[in-house]
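Retry 2 of 3 after timeout on previous attempt. Resubmitting structure tokens to design endpoint.
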């Protein structure tokens, strides 16, 4: 049973995959697109990764505002969730992603990744944090 984590942004989607037992998350890639609304190739790539890794569930970062309201970015995530469910046909779980990008940036800085190189990795690392948070919540429920 593998779970996929996605950090959905306006031009990129960070992708992470769990190990087969569902304990740890590993970043696998960042999908880049030229325009925000051009999602056909993005959805096709996610679908291919779902098949390749035999994914059963997708965890999609849900960027709520700090005051817990749903803004424009979160609305776009809800639309993307609906597209994923229609196209791929597996459950898509929304996961609060507040501050995951900040946490990813901090991790890259602490790892001494050069500023100009951080953009290449930040979405993938954010996807890892989103997925790992979800996996940790599942393991806490089982204890």
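Retry 2 succeeded. Sequence:
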């Amino acid at each position: 049973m593998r779970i996929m984590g996605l950090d959905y942004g306006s031009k990129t989607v960070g992708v992470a995959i769990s190990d087969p037992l569902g304990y740890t998350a590993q970043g696998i890639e960042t999908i880049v697109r030229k325009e925000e609304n051009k999602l056909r190739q993005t959805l096709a790539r996610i679908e291919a990764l779902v098949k390749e890794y035999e994914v059963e569930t997708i965890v999609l970062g849900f960027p709520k505002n700090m005051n817990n309201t749903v803004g424009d970015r979160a609305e776009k995530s809800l639309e993307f969730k609906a597209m994923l469910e229609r196209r791929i046909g597996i459950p898509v779980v929304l996961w609060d992603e507040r501050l995951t990008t900040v946490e990813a940036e901090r991790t890259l800085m602490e790892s001494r990744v050069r500023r100009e190189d951080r953009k290449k990795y930040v979405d993938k690392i954010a996807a890892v944090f989103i997925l790992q948070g979800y996996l940790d919540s599942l393991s806490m429920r089982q204890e």
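Attempt log closed. The chain has a mean pLDDT of 87.
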